[in-house]
Amino acid sequence: MRRRWLFWVGIAVSVAFLYLALRNVRLDEVLDLIRGAQLAWIALGIAVYFLSVALRAQRWALLLSSAGHLRVGQLYPIVIIGYMGNNIYPARIGELLRAYVLRQSYAMPFATSLASILIERVLDSAVLLGFVVAGLPITQGIGENLRLGLLALGAALVVGIALVMVMSIYARPIAERAEQWVGHLLPRRLGATFLDLFQRFLLGTQSLKSPRVFLATLALTLATWLVETVKYWCVAHALGISVPFLGLMLVNGLSNLFTVIPGAPGGIGTFDAGGVLGMVSLGVQPSLAFAYVLVLHAALWFPVTTLGFALMIREGLRWSDLSRAETMQVSP
Questions:
Q1: What confidence score (pLDDT) does residue 210 get?
Q2: Domain coverage including residue 276
Q3: 3 phi and psi, to 5 degrees?
Q4: Most CB within 10 Å of its CB: which of 10, 45, 145, 159?
Q5: Is 7 domain-assigned?
Q6: 118: closest CA among 160, 68, 62?
């Protein structure tokens, strides 16, 4: 019942954002523009995108280095499967699916994987926010409310990064203090389970204690999103759009930050509204902006989802595993 309720709320949110994206858009112009897109540029963009996924797998390997040594080749298909899960299931279930597959394949504790994924999301959001802030000076027509919202998000990210760093540096005393509190607040059996999970979660933050690993992780995050912006540039060329690369960084930031808003699977509506807002603010005509974002979104969705299905079959996963990843208890 709860999942069905969340699904329909997500659909409503996506419909509302699609309406915002489609304002002032002529669909006949959009179809003509899409028909004229150069497929070679789109294919190049897709290839570049899979390179960015390899960088994500390398970053994940670094974040998991305190709990086990996994190679990029081992993690790459799991990242792809996770994207497939995000694209077809609501509430970013693909993130839980990644942790589930990693536990099934390499016995990595579920809570440890979730900690590493949480760190990824915080770093991704920080870099994307930086992209938006860097591109704001060349835009026009972005409202004050959005600027204030970005500032609020920036403050939240600073707090989030600070908390992650504190947990990684002071993991032992935090665990000891948690043990004292849990002993007073929870029954022994429940408290023992909670402490075990919490300690495994703390283990997932330990890689950031090393300045080298932290800087490498941050550099890989920046490189990942810069490479992905190259895909945005390729799709722009496919439709004959000429905007500065800094502007496409802003579009990348807005389109992906908008997907934080709970919506339909794959960021339908939210991604599109953010992308159209960015392109229009750069002076692109609304119909061309929507055609661009539609082609871009399709090029992001279809290839990785198709490959994710194929890898899911290769790994011996079933549809039931998607639901199991959503409902499973976070156990050792």
A1: 78
A2: 12-327
A3: -65, -40
A4: 45
A5: no
A6: 160
The reply to whether 310 falls in a domain is yes
Between CA 145 and CA 132 the distance in angstroms is 14
Distance CA 281, CA 139 (A): 5
Q: How many domains does the chain have?
A: 1
Mean pLDDT taken over the chain: 84
Among all chains, which residue has been given the structure tokens 């945005």?
A: 232
* Residue 275: pLDDT over 60: yes
Average pLDDT over residues 166-175: 64
Any domain includes 49: yes
Phi-psi region of 127 (alpha: psi -120 to 50; beta: other; left: phi over 0): alpha
Half-sphere exposure of 107 (CA within 13 A, CB side): 2
Joined tokens for residue 21: 């994206």
Nearest 5°: CA angle at 107, between 105 and 110? 105
pLDDT in tens, 27-46: 999 999 999 999 999 999 99
Which residue, chain included where needed, has tokens 């939240």? 156
Instruction: Match 């900690």 to its residue by tokens.
Output: 115
pTM of the model: 0.85
